[in-house]
Amino acid sequence: MWADWNQDGDFDDLNEMLLQKTSALSIHENINIPAWVTPGSYRLRIQMRDSKKSNACETFSFGEVEDYTLSVNHINARVLPPKAPTTITVYPNPVSSWLNIRFGKLPSGKIKVYLINELGQMVYTGLAQITGENNITLDCQNVREGAFTLICRTENWQETKSILIFH
Q1: Closest CA to 162 of 80, 77, 93, 84
Q2: CB 129 within 8 A of CB 109
Q3: How far is CA 7 from the centre of its chain?
Q4: Would you state the pLDDT for residue 82?
Q5: Per residue in 63-81, pLDDT tens?
Q6: Which DSSP state fits 17?
Q7: Pairing mode of beta strands 63-72, 146-153
Q8: Domains of the chain, with CATH numbers?
């Protein structure tokens, strides 16, 4: 099951896969709507096929794919206490041209960086290799002004920051 949260016509982006299970029986599950999703209508795709996991747009010989409209009316967000001390710092905030992201002590590896606007649209996606403490810089000069959510994630960790862009 997938939802096109950023309404870009595909189901390939962060958090768009809602559920992937293999079962011959009925499946009853709750889905989590990301906190940055705004009220509105979103495309929801449900796929049932011959007990194999697949992507949202794969061709297969036996099964069914249906698209629905998912209406998000409001979000009851729970704020959970952080599990670990903050490991990233962003500056300056508000930003006018270049945003600096300072990573604290994280395990070495690849880190994905996403910038999401107020409409839930992903305006930047990047991948960086980090080792211990690192700094990366994002060019925000061509990004429209407004409030954004910055998501930094590795395979086992994720942190979110709110930023403002003003030119």
Answers
A1: 93
A2: yes
A3: 13
A4: 47
A5: 788 889 888 876 555 544 4
A6: B
A7: unpaired
A8: 1-79 (no CATH), 88-165 (2.60.40.3080)
| Residue 95 scores a pLDDT above 90 | yes
Using the 8-state DSSP alphabet, how is residue 156 labeled?
A: S
| Average pLDDT for the chain | 81
Tokens 């910038």 locate to 115
123 contacts 148 by C-beta, under 8 angstroms: yes
In percent, how much of the chain has pLDDT > 90? 25
Where residue 90 falls (left for φ over 0; alpha for ψ -120 to 50; beta otherwise) is beta
Q: Indicate whether this model's pTM tops 0.70.
A: no
Can you tell me the distance from the alpha carbon of 57 to that of 30, in angstroms, rounded to the nearest whole number? 23
**Distance between CA atoms of 53 and 68, rounded to whole angstroms?**
20
How many other C-beta atoms lie within 10 A of the C-beta of residue 138?
Answer: 19
In 3D space, the residue among 103, 105, 102 whose CA is nearest the CA of residue 91 turns out to be 102
**The predicted structure's pLDDT at residue 39:** 81
Alpha-carbon distances, residue 64 vs 2, 9, 52, 106, 142 (angstroms)? 14, 19, 13, 42, 42
